[in-house]
Amino acid sequence: MTAAKPGLRHLDVDLAIVGAGSAGMAAYKAAARHTSRLVVIESSGYGTLCARAGCMPSKLLIEAASRAHAIRQAHRFGIQAVGARVDGAAVMARLRELRDYFVDSVIREAEAWPAAHRLTGRARFIGPCELQVDDHAIVKARSIVLATGSRAVVPDAWREAIDGHLLTTDTLFELPSLPRSIAVIGGGAIGTEMAQALSRLGVRVVWLMREDAPGGLRDPALRPLAIPLLSEGITLITRAEVRSMAEAEGGQARVEFDANGERGSAVVDKVLVCIGRQPVFDGLDLDKGGLTLNKEGLVDHEDRSTRVGESCVFLAGDVSGAHPLLHEAVRDGRRAATQAVAQPGPPHHLPEAPLEGGRRTALRIVFCDPQIAAIGRGHEELTRSHHPFVTGVADFTDQGRSRIKDMNRGALRVYVCRDRRVVLGAEMIGPCAEHLAHLLAWSVHQGQTIDTLLDCPIYHPVVEEAVRTALGHARAQLAGQATMRPASPLSACADMGIGL
Amino acid sequence: MTAAKPGLRHLDVDLAIVGAGSAGMAAYKAAARHTSRLVVIESSGYGTLCARAGCMPSKLLIEAASRAHAIRQAHRFGIQAVGARVDGAAVMARLRELRDYFVDSVIREAEAWPAAHRLTGRARFIGPCELQVDDHAIVKARSIVLATGSRAVVPDAWREAIDGHLLTTDTLFELPSLPRSIAVIGGGAIGTEMAQALSRLGVRVVWLMREDAPGGLRDPALRPLAIPLLSEGITLITRAEVRSMAEAEGGQARVEFDANGERGSAVVDKVLVCIGRQPVFDGLDLDKGGLTLNKEGLVDHEDRSTRVGESCVFLAGDVSGAHPLLHEAVRDGRRAATQAVAQPGPPHHLPEAPLEGGRRTALRIVFCDPQIAAIGRGHEELTRSHHPFVTGVADFTDQGRSRIKDMNRGALRVYVCRDRRVVLGAEMIGPCAEHLAHLLAWSVHQGQTIDTLLDCPIYHPVVEEAVRTALGHARAQLAGQATMRPASPLSACADMGIGL
Fold it and tell me: Which residues form the FAD/NAD(P)-binding domain (chains A, B) (predicted)?
């Protein structure tokens, strides 16, 4: 207990939420159903990473890029266009206009919460269940949800060498126009989306990654597809290690790297760093809250409840160090808040509340072209755990509707349990992956068998027919039919999943 | 029994299939798993309506149109298309090239069947279970699957008046280039798809329909959206009755019509008739097979088994007079064949075989922009049958991803059973309807409750979030919360379906 100081407000609440991003907002909304004794502490203004610098602006850039690409490809459909002229300033202006609209709507929502529930300032622990906010408030909370988010990782050496050229997605979308050239560092989801989008918008892109293939595909049969499908028009250097960065002539930056035993360098206007995000714990004085960082710089916590040990602290969203995904941050926030306020009682002995949506089905989508999606359990994990499964395959090369759309590239692989015939997971690179991924993720989440799914209606001609092809291929294997059905547009036209 | 005639082959089979379209091919493949004593009789060469003049070429035209439209809209994303021009001949050439590829693949499949299973010629009944094929074969069959398909309806008077200007989808795709102007007659799926596609390809379109709105939307809350969303750039005349057609000056055709009590006329190069399709029974001598046409010109049959009364005849595909939909034709064909060959025994006393995929979940998609989809049971049907249900609504106007894609138009309505909380059906006009429709159709088919569905993962930012919005709205109503949640991009960013 802290003695009262002059000028300090003292609050005693059921729940304090630190951070009003996606996870914190979701936590607030979930908790507000159970208690009005709660407070959200935000230091840097409302508005989520998602809306400000994440999902929304990145999709806006990708959408513009896909329009430019479509114009260049239109001749394949009998539409002639001399060329696509990309007005970089106009692209960025539309992006920011809509981005700001999204941010404003988030801010309006937070500002509509009761003023008594909102504190502005930096929170720091002054005790296991006690926070101080700047110099104006002390909050004693039965439970605390930490939702302070994440920031892009940028090595200090790079920052020191070429700070004026360095971009992350936190700053990329603030550019007044598009650079002429850029080095994109990182082969994960964000690097993949941005490298391709910028290239399609006419930016010269040098793309460096440690990985041997972009896009984060895990299935060894899909990984080889990534490079040819995703590097068109791009200087792609895999297995690259950045050695140094330096200012170069003409106001540019030079990136030196090793790749495959060779040295190389690229001179570019800008360098976009997409090598990951790290949790933000700045100034939280975690130790005073009884929390410690592990050797990865994360706070250990129980995965399902999000609770940190036996403490009163729950983690929600990116700060937990999991994948920075909006839909999981929101679920985390809701879950943490539900756990944190579900039961009255002494803070250190919260009973386990029932978890809403106990099972979590992984769902990852990369919005490149063709899109990448991973659903449920992966090929590697299933193989490692010796789970008996078969892989049903659909090749998009000759898939009817994909061919009509001139998007007949990539493949879908669905993992089916040999014993229970349920879909365990799937991975794909191909057209409409974001949509097929939901059909598959719902099926995995619900524990559906391939037999149930093969009885479900599929229209024609649609890309969803590839799901049926893959499921049918899996069923044929389970029936001991080793022969692989050749991919054919017929599989769309005259086959409804039987007769394999 | 027919006496042997010289030059006539006599065949005695378990199953004769008349017509090798989508339904006939599916019937063949299903039956061939059970018997090798079967024959397919085709009079006019292999290749399905779907591939030749239906799903595939229409989607090819739509794809070209959507590219042309995207180019015109690109400026909204900051992209200027320089010198965009629709090359009608090139559009049609690409369409036919890919169309022929699809047709060829169908033909190759049929030609790979054993020669003994294929008869070429016109079939006609010469007895209840006996067919003659031209003058060269007599087929005595334990069961017969009629899969003779359908043709576009064109009134004789129109044909006589302006035959050279009249088109159906059977002939549209054979045009060497695009006409300058066209009257599209009919507001159903095909009329809607073709009117919009042709307009977007630069053809001046006059669109006449009896209906008060295009696209076949049934939900009274959605119907008013159809006209503003689907008539851009088109002269749309609803509640129109064509009075006459005649040749006009300059090699054109004049269409005279009544609409809303007024007379009107349009002078155009071509007239595309999309007022429906009718079953083809030409020269079948149905009466000798013991079959009769009802007053609608259809053959009555049992809906689930597709069997005609107590006869040995089963109907499959368009000939049954149902909606001409590929995926249903294929299912029909499979079902008819399975029924027809499932059990040995006298032809008139076939026991009922178990029906594969007993329940049929309706799934209709119109590939206009925004797309239209209808799933499961409709609003009208549910209202008429006094089924207790609530309607969960999602408005796309402020749906996050739809706004990013500049496709934020339309609405989704999901019908949820008050008692069992299952999704009964849905209807929508909006972005990505073909994909959302599958998610919903599978949910309806599987009998999922909204509670299960609201626990399923949805990524962000995706159009699928609208499904969650609609389901959440339905759940709020079931919980007695009458207030309707205002549509907001927040529903995408910071809400996972609870907290409504």
Answer: 14-333
Residues 376-405 of A with CB under 8 A from B: 400-401, 403-405
Contact A459/B452, CB-based, under 8 Å? no
Mutate which: B50, B79, B359, vs A, most A CBs within 10 A: B79
Whether chain A has a CB inside 8 Å of the CB on B355: the answer is no
Residues of B with Cβ-Cβ distance to A407 under 8 angstroms: none
Task: Give the model confidence (pLDDT) of B393-437 as tens digits.
Answer: 999 999 999 999 999 999 999 999 999 999 999 999 999 999 999
Check CB contact under 8 Å for B67 and A48.
no
Q: What is the pLDDT of residue A44?
A: 86
State the SS3 of chain B. CCCCCCCCEEEEEEEEEECCCHHHHHHHHHHCCCCCCEEEEECCCCCCHHHHHCHHHHHHHHHHHHHHHHHHHHHHHCEEEECCEECHHHHHHHHHHHHHHHHHHHHHHHHCCCHHHEEECCEEEEECCEEEECCCEEEEEEEEEECCCEEECCCHHHHHHHHHHEECHHHHCCCCCCCCEEEEECCCHHHHHHHHHHHHCCCEEEEECCCCCHHHCCCCCCHHHHHHHHCCCCEEECCEEEEEEEEEHHHEEEEEEEECCEEEEEEECEEEECCCEEECCCCCCHHHHCCCCCCCCCCCCCCCCCECCCCCEEECHHHHCCCCCHHHHHHHHHHHHHHHHCCCCCHHHCCCCCCCCCCCCCEEEECCCCEEEEEECCHHHHHHCCCCEEEEEEEHHHCHHHHHCCCCCCEEEEEEECCCCEEEEEEEEECCHHHHHHHHHHHHHHCCEHHHHHCCCCCCCCCCHHHHHHHHHHHHHHCCCCCCCCCCCHHHHCCCCCCC
Closest residue in A to B61 (Cα) is A77
Q: Which residue of B has its CA nearest to A21?
A: B494
Cβ-Cβ contacts under 8 Å, B80 against chain A: 84-87
Q: Is the pLDDT of residue A499 over 60?
A: no
User: Hey, which residues 26-85 in chain B have their CB within 8 Å of chain A?
Assistant: 26, 29-30, 33, 48, 50-51, 55-56, 59-60, 63-64, 67-68, 70-71, 73-74, 76-85
Domains of chain A: 9-43+121-152+278-349 (3.50.50.60), 156-276 (3.50.50.60), 363-493 (3.30.390.30)
A3 pLDDT tier (thresholds 50, 70, 90): low
Q: Which of A177, A218, A155 is nearest to A366 (CA)?
A: A218
pLDDT digits (tens, 9 = 90+) for B342-389: 644 443 333 333 344 455 899 999 999 999 999 999 999 999 999 999
Q: Which residue of B has its CA nearest to A489?
A: B102
Q: Find which of B75, B98, B377, B404 to mutate to test the A interface (most A CBs within 10 Å of its CB).
A: B404
User: Which residue on chain B is closest to A364 by alpha carbon?
Assistant: B459
CA A409 to chain centroid: 23
Search chain A and give the residue with CA nearest B361: A457
Side chain identity at residue A101, one-letter code: Y
- Average pLDDT on B313-322 reads 90
- From the CA of A331, how many Å to the nearest CA of chain B? 7
* Interface check B493 vs A, CB under 8 A: yes
Cβ pair A455, B358 in contact under 8 A: no
pLDDT of residue B335: 82
- Decide: B367 and B379 in contact? Cβ < 8 Å: no
B 103-122 residues with CB < 8 A to A? 105-106, 109
- Would you call B87 and A76 a contact, using CB atoms and an 8 Å cutoff? no
CB B131 within 8 A of CB B314: no
